[in-house]
Structure formats: C-alpha cells, structure tokens
Write a structure and sequence with these properties.
634 residues, seven-stranded mixed beta sheet, alpha/beta
C-alpha cells in the first residue's frame, strides 16, 4: 500500500500486532477441544434448575388450563381442522404471554433478596480492550463517547489495564478521513497513559462479525478480555470495572453481559421505549438472569468476553442455507453465546450493574427499519436449532428470538379469525359457518360472560408485567421522587401504557411484514442505524403504513355494521390512525412536555452522559476549526 492509501493506518494509530488464531466452527460437528475449566457453571446448578421450573411450569400450566377451558366453546361433536388451528394459535400466544409474567414474578422474588456474588475467588489483573466497531457513523459523536469512557477509567484506576480500539468498517472516504482526524485530535487531548487506537479495514467482509474477527486475529493474543461496544454505547468506568472484575474472578466465565439502559431519547416514541426500559426492564432482566443462570445470552454489545475462549470456539462460518437467502449470519450474538456454552464456558447476565447505556430509535419508522434487520437475523437462527453440541437452553434462546417475530403473523391471524367470527352466530361475517353447513365449525358467541372473562384475562396478562414491575420498583433502590414525584410518575405510566396500546397493533403488522420480507428474500443489506431519527414526509408514512390503514378501515366498517366485536375497537383505532401515530412518534417532547415519560436519568442526568456530551462538543468544535483553517489556507 502507498502512504496515500485511505485504508493504511499510520503505525502510531495501531499497536504492534499480536495474532491469535480464530478458526471457523462447524455446526455439524461437536466442539471437541475446550480450554474451559471443568464445571464452568453457576456453582449453584440446583437453584438454577428450581428457577427454571418456577419460570416454565406456571406458563405451561396456565396455557393448558386455558386451552382445556376453551375446548367446549366449539361444536360438541368434535373439532374441525380450522378449530384446532384456532386453539393452537391461542395457546401459542398465551404461553409466551404467561412466560413473560412468570419471568417478571421471578424477578420480583430475586430483587427482594440480597444481590448475588459477582464472582468466586480473587481479582486477577487483566488487559482489557474496549472495541468500538463503527460503520459510517458521526465521528465526533462516537469519539466523544470514547473520550468520556477513557477519562473515567483513568480517574478510577484499579487493577486492570484498558485500551480502546475504534474498528472502522466505514465505506465513505470523507467520513473515514473525519474518523482519522477525530482519533488524532482525541489522542492529543487524552491524559498520559490512556490508550486509543484506530484501524480501518479495506473491506467490510463479514460486517460486524468480520470486524471483530479481524481484531482478534491481529491483536487478540495481547488482551485477556474484550469489552464489545456499539457506536452509541456508553458505560461508566465503574460499570466497566465491575464487568472486568467479575470475569477475572470467575475463570469459567466466557462472557458476561450487562443490562444496557436506554438514554438520550427526546421524541415521543423514544421516550416511551426509554421509560419502559427504565421502569419495567429490571424486574424482567432479573427474572431472566435467574432462570438462565450460567447459560445466558449475548446481545452483541456492552458485554465483556474472554478473548482466548471466544477465539477458540466462536468463529462463525457462513450458513449453507440461511433463512431469507443470506449466507452471512446476521444476528451473530445469540449464536456466539451458544458456541461458548457448547465449548463449556459459562455465559452470564448481571442486570444489577448500573451505568451501562445505549440509545434507541427516535421514530416509529426508524424502529421498524432496525426491526426488519433484526427479524432477518433472528429468523436465520431457525437453521441452527439442530446444530451439534448446542445446549438445550442455547437452542431455547435461538428459538425465543425467532418466535418474537413469528408471533406477529400469529397475532394477525388471530385478529382476522376474531373479526370473521363476529359478535355471534347470527352476526358472523362467515354466516355459512352454521348448522346449515354441518361440515363447517359453529363458532362461539363471543358475547357470553365466560368468553368475556377470557378476553379480559388475556388483556390483563398483557398488562401484568408492567404493573408487577412498577410494584418492584422500590426493590431496585428507586424512589418515585426520582421520577418527578408520584403524580408525574403516574401520568408518565398512564401515557406509556396508552402509547404502548396504540403502537402495539402497528408494530404487529410491521413485524408480520418483516417476516414475509425475510421469507421472500426481500430484506437486503444491513445499513447503519439512523441515530438521531429520520424526518419523513406524509407520503413516506402513508406508503409505510398502508397495510395497517387498510386493515383498520376494514375493521371499522365491520364494527359499524355490527358484525365485528367491539373488543377489537382499540386495535381498529390504532390501525386506522397508523399514519398520524407514526408522525407523532417523532415529535420532540422536550419542546412540549419535558417531564412526560421521564426516567431517573432525565431528572438526574448521570455524570457520564454529561461528560460525553461535553466531550462530543469539544471534539466537534476542534474538527470544525481545523476544517475552517484548511479552507482558509486553500
């Protein structure tokens, strides 16, 4: 390469290479050569087994009871194939709803107990590399976050050594030049001892997976652990140190995942997501950590990984027949967690480590675009359910991720069937489903009290995780005064529930679209996320939400005609208002209702976020000043 090659990193921006082999794994062959210590588990396997029984058994029992109670809704002379399909769809959905409730209940119990020890044994000093993969991101934004994290780590000190690597996959040469200039400017600002490196790949083969693999193969041998971050990740020095300590104290741990909290949301939709994450999330996360034990999952960022373990057993091959036609494994994180467990390493989730942050899409459209990519990746996991050597719980994580999207067409099918059933036999849309045609099912009268109770039960179960999590809030150490007081918190809670009800049917339809786009091979590419949210015209919104709008109008027509149940009215309202609701999602709340849907981090902004904002501004100003000087000189 010549000195002017845009992909050449000056020696000063990269450390000497310390190669580490990272072979691709074979899903058709069991992993044979593990360096994991014998018995790399939670150390309390009996308790974990009990937690799993307590999580899964109530959900299965509740689903069985509901299905048994519904069997006499239909014709007494046996079931038709269509009736069986309907019952299966209801049972399928109800199990996952019940499982969420039981997980939150476990979280409540866990939060009422003392925090579990974060590791066994003494803390051994480690060299930890903080990896920040970037792809066409705003350089000063990413580097501002990097500056604040390095600064906090320097101030904190401790047993471990840290260095940060900005791993660029950027394809735009102008942005890449800004990246390099940002790194050089930041290196001049950092205190002595802080280590910051930059590497840009000549191609982005393998996307993020290839980016991380390239680092492991070139520098991995020099680092005991790697903390993988996203471009919008932000972690306090304390959170990073706690993750490093936990990995150091547990020689059998291959990966430890933190619980990232959402920050920085300013729009209606972003604040709704942030409020739900901040208020409801910890109880659910604590329950998940309890039943997952040492067989947890990986969400791709804000997690620390033992480098040699990852290199030895988590190299990803291309899929031979991936769902949707892609050969590259898109959602790599779940698979890498499964591979670590296959090799005997534990994968843990420590949700009580505070100070781990990320951002969320600001508009409904941006959320949908990201969700389509995630759907494509998660549905690929169906190809790996029969991989050799995967633990049962690893397969469950893979299946659970896919089902999160497959439930959307199931819910839509139930909606269609419910609408066709109507309000009773005489008003059913499908009037030929009656005694006059004995080969067809005789649908139940949905206005009967027992049917109303079941409908109310399903709605209550959907709402229960939120209300239970609110009840658990004091157990997390939070006080309602930190949310602006009981009145403001209650108003925000009601606003979140209302918005969630309004947006849920729209998200259901969009996830169904994502499933079919993936199945038909229409979902292509893995474009970078719009961090600040996009600005979309009414025409774009109308195109995006055409199916929801048409479905809503059909439901409204049926309700007005008296042939569709009034229980579908909330769904009809949501769908018919999909376009204006999508426009509402991007409205900035700080202009109109700053306190609405505000979390503790809004009322008392963490030091790390204030520091990051200041460092971003400083770096941006430095780059703009340098650019102005160059322009003047020319």
């Amino acid at each position: 390469m010549t000195p002017t090659d845009p992909f050449t990193s000056p020696a000063a921006l990269t450390p000497p290479e310390q190669p580490l082999a990272m072979p691709e794994q074979d899903f058709a062959v069991r992993f044979q050569d593990s360096a994991a210590p014998a018995g790399a588990t939670d150390g309390n396997a009996r308790n974990v087994a009990i937690w799993r029984i307590l999580a899964f058994s109530p959900a299965m029992a509740a689903t069985g009871l509901l299905t048994w109670g519904m069997k006499d809704w239909f014709a007494a002379d046996g079931f038709s194939a269509l009736e069986v399909v309907l019952l299966v769809l209801i049972a399928f959905n109800f199990f996952w709803i019940s499982f969420s409730v039981s997980t939150v209940l476990l979280g409540l119990w866990g939060l009422s107990r003392r925090p579990r020890a974060r590791g066994r044994g003494r803390t051994e000093p480690m060299k930890v590399a903080l990896l920040v993969p970037v792809y066409n991101e705003v350089p000063w934004y990413v580097l501002g976050n990097a500056h604040s994290m390095l600064e906090e780590l320097q101030e904190r000190g401790g047993a471990h050594q840290y260095a940060m690597f900005i791993l660029s996959d950027t394809r735009d040469d102008a942005i890449a030049e800004q990246e390099r200039a940002s790194v050089e400017a930041l290196r001049a600002m950092l205190p002595d001892g802080a280590q910051l490196y930059y590497r840009r790949r000549p191609d982005n083969q393998g996307r993020k997976v290839g980016n991380i693999t390239d680092w492991v193969r070139r520098w991995g041998a020099g680092w005991d652990a790697m903390l993988v971050l996203d471009a919008d990740s932000l972690m306090t020095g304390r959170a990073i140190a706690h993750l490093a300590d936990a990995l150091s104290r547990d020689p059998g741990a291959g990966l430890i995942q933190s619980y990232p909290q959402l920050i920085g949301a300013q729009s209606v939709f972003g604040r709704m997501q942030q409020f739900a994450n901040g208020v409801y999330g910890l109880a659910l996360a604590e329950g998940l950590a309890r039943w997952a034990g040492h067989e947890g999952n990986y969400w791709g960022h804000n997690a620390i990984i033992r480098t040699r373990a990852f290199a030895a057993c988590a190299g990803l091959p291309p899929l031979r027949s991936a769902f949707g036609g892609e050969k590259l494994i898109m959602s790599h994180d779940f698979v890498e967690a499964g591979l670590l467990r296959r090799a005997g390493w534990s994968v843990k989730f420590l949700p009580r480590i505070r100070g781990s942050y990320e951002e969320t899409p600001q508009t409904l459209v941006d959320h949908v675009l990201r969700d389509r990519r995630w759907c494509q990746g998660n549905l690929q996991h169906l190809n790996l359910l029969n991989a050799k050597g995967f633990r049962a719980l690893s397969r469950f994580h893979l299946l659970h991720g896919a089902i999160g999207y497959l439930m959307a067409p199931v819910w839509f099918a139930l909606l269609v069937i419910w609408a066709l059933i109507g309000t009773g036999e005489d008003t059913s849309v499908l009037t030929y489903f009656s005694e006059a045609n004995p080969t067809m099912p005789s649908w139940p009268d949905m206005s009967e009290p027992r049917h109303v109770l079941v409908i109310l039960l399903i709605y209550a179960m959907l709402l229960a995780p939120k209300l239970l999590a609110v009840a658990a809030l004091p157990m997390t150490g939070a006080r309602f005064s930190e949310y602006g007081g009981g009145g403001r918190f209650s108003l925000s809670l009601m606003a979140e529930i209302l918005l969630a009800i309004l947006y849920a049917p729209i998200l259901m339809v969009q996830q169904m679209i994502a499933v079919f786009r993936t199945a038909l091979g229409l979902q292509k590419g893995w474009s970078p996320q719009a961090r600040d949210g996009g600005s979309y015209s009414w025409r774009t919104l109308a195109t995006c939400h055409a199916l929801e709008t048409v479905s809503g109008l059909i439901l409204w027509a049926g309700i007005i005609a008296g042939v569709v149940s009034l229980w579908l009215l909330p769904i009809a309202i949501s769908l018919v208002l999909a376009i204006p609701l999508s426009a509402l999602s991007g409205v900035p709340l700080q202009r109109y209702a700053k306190a609405l849907l505000a979390t503790r981090e809004v009322y008392a902004e963490p030091r790390i976020t204030r520091l990051a904002r200041a460092r971003r501004q400083t770096l941006r100003l430095a780059l703009e000043t340098a650019a102005a000087r160059r322009t003047a000189a020319e």
